[in-house]
Amino acid sequence: MLISVESHEAQKGRQRLRALVDFYLGVHSAPEIAGQEVNTAAEFARALRETGLDVTEHVGGHGVVGVLANGPGPIVLIRAELDALPLAERTGLSYASGIPGVMHACGHDLHLAAALGSAQELAWSPETWGGTLVVVGQPAEERLTGAEAMLADGLFTRFPTPAVALAQHVAPLPVGVIAHGSALTLASAQVRVDLEGESAHAALAPWSTNMVATIGQVSSLWQEVAARYGALATMTAVTAGSAANVEAQTAELLGSARARSLTVVDDVIDSTRASLASLSSARATLTVTGAAEAVAVDPELAADLLSEHARIFGPTRVWSRYATNAADDFSALGRELRSGKRVRLGYWMFGAVDHDVWRAAGERTGAADAPAIPGNHSDLFAPQLNSIATAVVALTSAARSQLAARTLRPMEGSTS
Ligand SMILES: [Zn+2]
Q1: Which Pfam families match (predicted)?
Q2: Which of 325, 370, 367 is nearest to 230 (CA)?
Q3: Best CA proximity match to 235, nearest among 250, 220, 251
Q4: Each residue of 160-196: b (16+ CB within 10 Å) or e?
């Protein structure tokens, strides 16, 4: 009879992963939208403090910064986001959101668990590395305002200024896959259009503002202008009117535009504003509420991280030319410092789709990226829990590769 004895190390690893999954489940079931991440921030801060980091809260809103200083060496920042989306979860999972109309549909809860896991791995093995780890819990990513708010509140001046900043994002890819690329995100701006016309009896429609028709016009205009610039834009939310026989006097539209760079996005916005000025049915005001440049990964760093991930996960699990239309204000951290040096950004995506689901979707649609799978921002988005392990390893190995390497001194009396 074969007796399998799990090593002490393996047992400890399993317990740590179980605790991280519990942390994830807690965050997932109690999501908070951008700007309201009070409890999520407090939980993340508490967990980092328990791990031994020096933690500061309320940085740029609900931002959390944890510092783990471990002697001389490079300063490496890892970042995860705190906010969820105003979306009602329909996954039916036992741990689904308990907050009506709010859902972690973008995987920020996974990112937080992975950042915590990496902080723990490094905090619990101080003899293997040197330098300083800065762990950031960033608020309001979904509004593309949180990173700028943290920088304005001294992220790079009140805390150790990093040479390298790292972040990762879950994507509709099979569990275990890590995807690198130079165009992982696009630049994006979020806008609000306020319309103001005349309220009137619906019977006067031919002579008054037809607000709903105007909303349609504005929405089409936004898309058409973007298409002229090779950009992608949609209006995604609208508030107007309250009765079947009263013309609404005001309306509010929310939407976004995305393109390769913010210069193109700005062109789309300027051109749309010019067209809106000649609308005859209502006065229109377009306001930019948040914006982020595309994440510009440092090419040398990206090559280093790609080879590190390929070494750890094996080359078939690491994709090198992935691209998406998503945006992430992590880009703001790649700024030039007063010293003239630039913070080098590293960024990659990891999969969380069950392999059978992935295969079935691929066969159904015949598409390589299986768009039939409910992805980020879908109310059916349900990442696999075992993606947390991959995300922890991906982030820890990336951070470790940029910190100072220290080899263990052989023990006294050791013979090999
Ligand atoms: Zn998102």
Answers
A1: Peptidase_M20
A2: 325
A3: 220
A4: bbbbbbbbbbbbbbbbbbbbbbeebbbbbbbbebebe
Give residue 106 CA to ligand 1 midpoint distance, Å. 4
Q: Which two tokens stand for residue 353?
A: 């789709």
Task: Tell me the CB-side half-sphere exposure of residue 156, using CA atoms within 13 A.
Answer: 20
List per-residue pLDDT tens for the chain, 416 residues long: 555 667 888 899 899 999 999 999 999 999 999 999 999 999 999 999 999 999 999 999 999 999 999 999 999 999 999 999 999 999 999 999 999 999 999 999 999 999 999 999 999 999 999 999 999 999 999 999 999 999 999 999 999 999 999 999 999 999 999 999 999 999 999 999 999 998 888 888 777 789 999 999 999 999 999 999 999 999 999 999 999 999 899 999 999 999 999 999 999 999 999 999 999 889 999 999 999 999 999 999 999 999 999 999 999 999 999 999 999 999 999 988 888 899 999 999 999 999 888 888 775 555 455 456 888 999 999 999 999 999 999 999 999 999 988 865 555 444 44
Looking at residue 106, the DSSP 8-state letter turns out to be S
- The alpha carbon of 201 and the centre of ligand 1 are apart by a number of angstroms equal to 41
Centre of ligand 1 to C-alpha 282, Å, is 32
How far apart are the CA of 242 and the centre of ligand 1, in A? 31
CATH code of the region 9-185+294-403: 3.40.630.10
> Cα(195) to centroid of ligand 1, in Å?
27
d(CA 162, ligand 1 centre) in Å: 25
List C-alpha distances in Å: 70 to 127, 194, 276, 400, 405: 9, 52, 56, 12, 12
Span from the CA of 45 to the centroid of ligand 1 (angstroms): 22
CATH entry 3.30.530.20 includes domain 188-292: no
Domain boundaries, the chain: 9-185+294-403, 188-292
Q: How far is the CA of 102 from the centre of ligand 1 (A)?
A: 13
CA dihedral 15, 37, 103, 175 (to 10 degrees): -40
- Cα of 187 from ligand 1 centre, angstroms: 14
